[in-house]
Write a structure and sequence with these properties.
Length: about 325
Amino acid sequence: MQVLGQPKALSFLVQLVRTQRVPGALLFYGPDGVGKKLTALEFAKALNCTHVQPDGSPCGTCASCRAVDKGIHPDVTLVDYAYQARLEMKKDASSQSYEGDLEKEIAKQQHINVGTIRVVTAKSQQKQVQDGWKVFILDEAQSMQAAAANALLKFIEEPPAKTVWILISSKRSSMLRTILSRCQPLAFGPLAEKDILQIIAQNGLSLSQPQLAARYSGGSVSGALAADEAVALLEEGNFATPAGSMAVVSSLSRVTVTARQEAQTILDVLIRALHRKWTEETVSSRSHKIRPLLKRFETYKRSIARNVSPSLVLETALMSLDGLDLSL
């Protein structure tokens, strides 16, 4: 399967493909941006591929594999916020403003609702169109409303033959225990820097400083993209100078939600930079000064999450670095 950095998960899934003994429900859990959704789609391809490779990977070229890649396979359904938004859209898909309106509708989505689950569970009871497996991939599963989760329960407990549900979550602790108890869990860990750099190169992602982005990514590709923007804001604002804090803060978005996300990412980058400096510091007196600062930065992150002004918190955090000589 064409997925980097998740050997244990892939080994388990390849064995399922080879034996065709697939649990009725799987839970892919782990940080965002580490390949959970990509792995789910590759697994769906392998289960339906007409020319599965000896190593259990899908061929990628048969009609079934191409249909999954295009999102049009009749027996493979990806349920995400885009899918839900399309269900909720009242406009005809052929209308001139449809794509723009759909984008706005997707941005509004915060939960997987019960209506979406009822549509999908009804679809799960229909007979396969082709001879392979029916695969239902539910992204952001932790965002299911309680009614939606309860509506899903009996369908993942006793799915029809050759039907598998794959729930994807970055916050397993937020999910109902009754849902968790019905799923075979499969952990996905953070990616190594080399894997992130390879994924960036393979996908032609345009990053200004890929090495730094990978270093401060937190082990995820989405984290690398966010870190690249944060590093750029910090360096353009000369954050290590006395006037740098104001320059960085003034570069935050004027939209509060976006500014909060930007400030959180900048703090993440700085926390990782501080931790690196702490582990590499050879002078004990300097090392002792960094440790309480790390704790303080974690407090700053929590403050932003509690709706304290991101600009105020970030400025305070940057000012506390004065005299530390911190570099990225």
